[in-house]
Design goal:
about 240 residues; Protein Transport Mog1p, Chain A; 7-stranded antiparallel beta sheet; 7 helices; globular; disordered C terminus; Maf1; RNA polymerase III core binding; nucleus; transcription; transcription regulation
Length: about 240
């Protein structure tokens, strides 16, 4: 996966890391292309081999129902189809690229969940950001910026909620986390968006800007969504 350096997303990343009243927030908003690196190719080969072994084991099991369940009931689609396995590989590769000190190669497709709608994801993220300190970032501006680069209405969305042992911030007094992957197959791009709430007693040092430094336009006091967001979510969820 190739990381895209985008100036407007740099501003968003700065705004997503800050001190809230009861915790420290560390956020990521990164876009990658599906262009493979050398390490990606090794990862894909290892995952493909593992998936083929699992499919062989399940297909030869005494339970046809179990074999059918493994191949069909995946958030990425039937795992006997290469396109489904490829989407899973892209997400694992994105995690490895974003967190180079961690290895996510042992994750399973069942560790992820396919979100049923864009509006549900936006509601969850917006409520979290606004609850943490809405003066630092406008959620409308956040999604408008992201949409310019990945066209959210065309994306399949997956979520990942690891336990504290598997989370890359698990040793940083982790309190809560949310992680979403927006995959636009036509554009060959993956958006990785995550928020982590970390205890203030932890050792992590965030790189957010000073509180008096304006990064993004503050959210309006009434908190109402823009016409853009209303139209765009409606189109996505039809």
């Amino acid at each position: 996966m190739k990381f895209l350096e985008l100036a407007d997303l740099d501003a968003i990343n700065n705004a997503l890391s800050f001190d809230a009243d009861d915790c420290r927030i560390h956020g990521k908003c990164e876009i990658y292309t599906t262009k493979s690196t050398g390490s990606d190719k090794k990862l894909y080969k290892a995952i493909e081999s593992r998936c083929q072994e699992d499919m062989l084991a399940f297909s030869s099991s005494k339970s046809p129902e179990l074999a059918f369940s493994w191949t069909q009931q995946s958030p990425f689609g039937p795992l006997d189809q290469s396109s489904s396995r490829r989407t899973f590989m892209y997400i694992v590769a994105t995690l490895n690229a974003s967190h180079p000190d961690h290895d996510f190669s042992t994750l399973q497709p069942t560790d992820f969940y396919k979100e049923p709608s864009l509006s549900r994801v936006l509601d969850s993220v917006n409520a979290t950001i606004n609850g943490m300190g809405r003066g630092r970032i406008s959620v409308n501006q956040l999604w408008e910026t992201v949409d310019r680069h990945i066209n959210l209405s065309e994306c399949n969305i997956y979520s990942y909620t690891p336990d504290s042992d598997s989370d890359p911030y698990g040793d940083e007094a982790l309190i809560w986390s949310m992680s979403y992957f927006f995959f636009n197959k036509n554009m060959k791009r993956m958006l990785y968006f995550s928020l982590h709430g970390l205890g203030k007693e932890g050792t992590y040092q965030s790189h957010y800007v000073n509180e008096d430094e304006s990064v993004l336009t503050p959210v309006p006091e009434d908190g109402e969504p823009s016409d853009f967001e209303d139209d765009w979510v409606a189109n996505m969820d039809e």
